[in-house]
Structure formats: C-alpha cells, structure tokens
C-alpha cells in the first residue's frame, strides 16, 4: 500500500472564506482609517488625561445650577412623553403595515413594495428626519415626534411582520375555510397569537425611543432633558451639570429596562 | 337520496408541468360517509380543497347543493364556505386562545366584519358551542388554552369548530394522521356519529386503508390525480388496491399492518 | 355556563385601551404636542421636500466635499466598531456564564456593559467634546464607548446560547482555558459575532451623522452647515449620499450574513 503522508487539502468552504474576508476587510479599513484620520494638532495623551479629569469631575461632583431637581424631573417626563407618543404612533402605523407585509397575510407585490419603502426610511438617520420636518413644522415636539416616528415604523414593521409570520398558515387556512374575512382573521387569530411578541417589541422600541428623544433634544431642539444637556455642554460649559443630567438619564434608562423586563416576564407567564 | 356534491371533468394544473388532478368525476349523496384514499402526492388534498375553493380548479365543473362552485362571486363563496366545515391534520387552532373561543371562530363566516373583529358572539352561539363541546366530551376543557390539550382533544376542538358552522358537509383532511391509535379511533367514531346522527355528509381523506374500509359507505381511490376506484368498501379487492397504490401497495400493507385501528 | 369568561376578557381589553388612551393624553399635554399640526405637517413637509429638498446643479459642486466627509464618517464608524468589538470580546468571554472566570468579574463586566450602553451616544459626544474639541477622535470615541457597551452584551448572549458540548470535549482532552476559548468558543460563535458587528456598523453610520451634528465632524457637520445656511439643495445631496452609503453597507452585510449563518 502506498503511504500518503500529506493530509488532503482542505476543501474550499465559501462560508469560512467570507468570514475571513470580512474580518480582513474590517481590520484593513480600521487600520486605514486610524492611520489617515486628520487628527489636527491633538495631543492624545493630553486629551485622554483631560477626558479622565472631565469624567471624574462629571461623575463625582455632579450638580444642577440652571434648574432645580424638580425642573429636571419635569424635563425627563417631557422626554418620556415624546418617546411615548413616538412609540404609539409608530406602533399603530407599523402594525397596519406589518399586516400588509407578512407573507402569510399579504400579496408578494404589496409586501415587497412596503419592504422597500421601509428600507429607505431606515437608511435616513433619525436626526435628519427630524430636521427635515422641522422646516415644515418648526422646531418642537411635532417635528420631533413625527421625525422619530419614521424610524420607529421601519423598525417595528420588520419586528411585527416577523412575529406575525410565526403563525402557521394552517390556522389562517382553517378560518378562511369557515368563511371568515381578512379583518376577522387578523383580529381573531393573528393578533391573539402574536400580541405578546408585539407588546414586547413595542417596549424594546420604547426604550430605544427614550434614548433617541434625548439625542433629538440635544441635536434638533426637540425639548426635554436632551436640550438641557445641550445647553449645559455648548453654552454654559458646565461639566458638572452634564454629570447630573447623565445620572438622571441613566436612572430612567435603567428604570425603563427593568419595566420592560418585568412586562416581558409577565407576558411569558400569561403566554 | 339526492346528490349533494358532484365533480364533472375537474382538472387542476399547477404551472405548466404539474397536473394535480386530471378529469376527476364522482358524486357524493346527502348523508353519505365517503373516504378518499391514495398514496401521498396523489392529489387527495387538492381534490378536497377544490370543493370549498381553498384551491381553484383549472377546468371542469363542481356542483355543490345545486350551485356551480366555480361560478360563485366573493360573497357567495363566503356563504358556501359557511355551509362546509373543514378539519385538518394539524388541527390548525389558535393555540393561545381558549377552547371555546376557537370553537366560536366557526361562526365568523355568519357575522358582519365588525362583529367578527370584536368577537361579539350571541348567547345562542355560545350555548351551541358549549353543547357541541359536551357532545365531544370536552366540557372540562372549555376555558383551557388550546396549547394545553392533547392531539386528540385538539382535533375534537377542530371538529366542534366545524360543527358550530351548522354545515351540510364536513371535509376532513387526514384527520387522524398525527394521532395515536386510541385517539384516532375516538375521532373516527365521532365522525361516523356526526354522519349518522346529525345527518351531515362527511368526506374524508385517509391514507389508512383499513380505517377507510371500516367506517365508510363508499370509497374513492385516487392515483396520480385520477379516480381509479369508486365504490363500496367491500369491492376493494387486492387488485383494486394495487391499482390505487401502484407498486407501493405491498410495502404499504407491511407498514400499516396492525399499526392502525380498524 | 358562565359568561364571566368573556366579560373578563373584554374588560381586560377595555382597561388596556383606556390606559393607553390616558397615557397618550397625558403625553400630549406635557410635551405640548399639537395634534392638528401633527397631521397637517406631514403633507406640508412632503410638499416642501419635493419642491425644495432636491439637489440642483450648484449642489453638485459640493459633491467632492460630501463624498470626502462621508468616507471619513464611514471609516470612523467601522474603526470604532471593530476596535470596540475586540474589547467587547474579551469582556464577554470573561463575563459570560459559560466561559467566565466567574465571581465578581462576571458581575462587573455585565455592569460595565449596562452603564456604557445606557449612556447615550449624544451624552458621550458632548462629554468628549470638552477635551477633544472638534476632532474625529471625539466621534470615534463616542461611537467606541457605545458600541463597546452594546457589543459586550450581545456577544455575551451569543456565547451563552452556544452549546457547551465542544467546550466539554476540549476540556476532557486537558486543554487549558485560553485554548478552549480560542479553539472552541470563538470559532463556534464567530458567525453570530460577525453578524452583531455588521449590525453595529450599520447603526453607527446613522449615529455618526447625529454625532457629527453635535460635535462638528464628518458628514453630519456638513449637513448641518448646509441646513443652517438654508442651502437645502446641498443638504439634500448629503442626505442622498448617506442613504446610498447605508443601503450599500446594508446589502453587503446582508450578503455576508446569508453566507455565514
């Protein structure tokens, strides 16, 4: 017998090839980026030291100078209100669109059309939607809510329609066979089956919208706690106040996360 | 007895290549228990679904209760479907709803869109649903969620949902294919009672020949989309069975032997 | 038979709807949201956008600038994500329930991830603005911190979901901790991890626009400049450039995901 000491060559595997190429590309682009950025005359060590100091001051000695604690609380409530309205409007519109997108309830052409529109909406950053609406509606809660609603819609349509598609085709067939209409099937079979997923996704989006609403307050004058942060940073240059606001936001963000977890657990129990 | 359902030269073509049914002719009389048997992929399921137009036949004529099914408009089709109950291999219940809610879904076809959407059922409808659940031995499970039921119980809920429609005919697509022998027997006996006591015509797709022979008044054998046997169970000789199942017949008898209830 | 089952169910639904309605009204009042204006502003904005928010010939002169800044923003997003992913991987491996070294470190690692994730990217960029000024590094670091928080949690979950059999098999051969991680944990969860990295890059490009507006860098800065000077034609060209870039990145990462998952 002929002894073959060579291990046979590894067969070409597309998946691992793509993984390798992706990693290679990421490393190459990262290095290229880090080497070619225009750092101006920044002294890195100096900047890092200063950031450390800033963070220290901010986190250890927070204070509120330009507003009271109660006022800050009021501003956070406004931010939550913006997030709530955005989530609600987004959820209602997204639910309707998701019914028309889900493969088991819709026609392929309609589904594809909505998916393309949604992909376009998603590609435009939220802040740009808000600023574009601000030209027509003026800076304020209307532009903020409508601008932010766009992204909520695109996010939720995808999440909802995937939840809806989980329902077996057979259930829909059974109701159609008994003479039920489209709307009846939606309300009697589709929604009862997917409602807990829908609520849980809506909450995830609510959490995201809270963060987005903070950012929009800062970047697009939408009001709420984000605007105070913007003022503290860009006008009063008061790092301690930023620290105070950051703590407030952090506290509410964690509160929302706990609430979301509680609701998810509750739904899982009832599910 | 008068004829309730009649297939006249019915064909169904998928795309340009696949022919699921070709020139199918047969009739079902009122109150009859008819089984459709044949190997998998023979077109049994397509045939059944052509009756309530879950699938539209490509050509030919299907007459149900003196009306041509293929000519119906949207509203008439809805009316037709309310008069034909259907049960499925995988039960197709909304698992997260209670038993009674699933049963009441059978009434949706009779309701206005809004009443159906809101789930507004009358007292009589609820009473009727409850009565049917009693008949099927599910009175203990009325408010249980369907995902807590066994397969046999789920299929009985499926039957109740079909019966609450007050149908003239019941279409059963492989009703016992996912069930154990005992549950299968319970389901088949319920179906026979529905036929003999309630006078509802039953058309059932089966792949177990022994079960079909035991319960049916008449058997329709299908192979490759054509009807190759149409007659009483007694006339189903070995040769006829070989014509229905082709070369698979001997294998089939080996596999099925004694596994299913008779 | 009792009708209370249906009654209770209906009351539940009714209660839920009433709750949502009440919260909506409260939210409308405290945010001073003008409902009528909300409805009318959508067609108004659409009308305005169609007639004013389109690139014209003059805007085309700005295209080189826009592309230049866009590329910078893309590179910042990718660099921030990749470097954050490296750190996140270390933290996730050490903090995961399955591969973690356990004890307080696992807790701390999860806690750090939560804090970093919940300090918004807008807050990070304003904090960094103090010492880094209008610099690419401001945006880079803001994205880095947020991506680090997000990816640590995502990686941890992916590793936790992984099946432990291969780890056990390796442990049985006497392999050390580093070997187990390098030859079992990372290879078997790699597709998941890459998918998360790609997702974060997509998100970061959108976030980078926001950071750019806040810190005066990249494509966001350019958009803001045109927008504030009412040069809507050029601003719209910037938006189109961003949309095209994001869609290209999305389709590339969708392709990669399809092949590797």
TrEMBL record, chain B:
Transmembrane segments: none annotated. Coiled coil: none annotated. SMART domains: AAA. CDD domains: ABC_PhnC_transporter (cd03256). Keywords: ATP-binding, Cell membrane, Membrane, Nucleotide-binding, Phosphonate transport, Translocase, Transport. GO terms for cellular component: membrane. GO terms for molecular function: ABC-type phosphonate transporter activity; ATP binding; ATP hydrolysis activity. PROSITE patterns: ABC_TRANSPORTER_1, ABC_TRANSPORTER_2. Residues 5-249 form the ABC transporter domain. PANTHER family: AMINO ACID IMPORT ATP-BINDING PROTEIN, PHOSPHONATES IMPORT ATP-BINDING PROTEIN PHNC. This is Phosphonate ABC transporter ATP-binding protein.
TrEMBL record, chain C:
CDD domains: TM_PBP2. It comes from the Bacteria. SUPFAM superfamilies: MetI-like (SSF161098). It is found in: Cell membrane. GO terms for cellular component: plasma membrane. PROSITE patterns: ABC_TM1. The keyword GTP-binding does not apply. Keywords: Cell membrane, Membrane, Transmembrane, Transmembrane helix, Transport. The keyword Transport applies. The chain crosses the membrane at residues 12-31, 74-94, 139-156, 208-227, 233-256. Residues 70-253 form the ABC transmembrane type-1 domain. It is a multi-pass membrane protein. One of its GO terms (biological process) is transmembrane transport. Belongs to the binding-protein-dependent transport system permease family. This is Phosphonate ABC transporter permease.
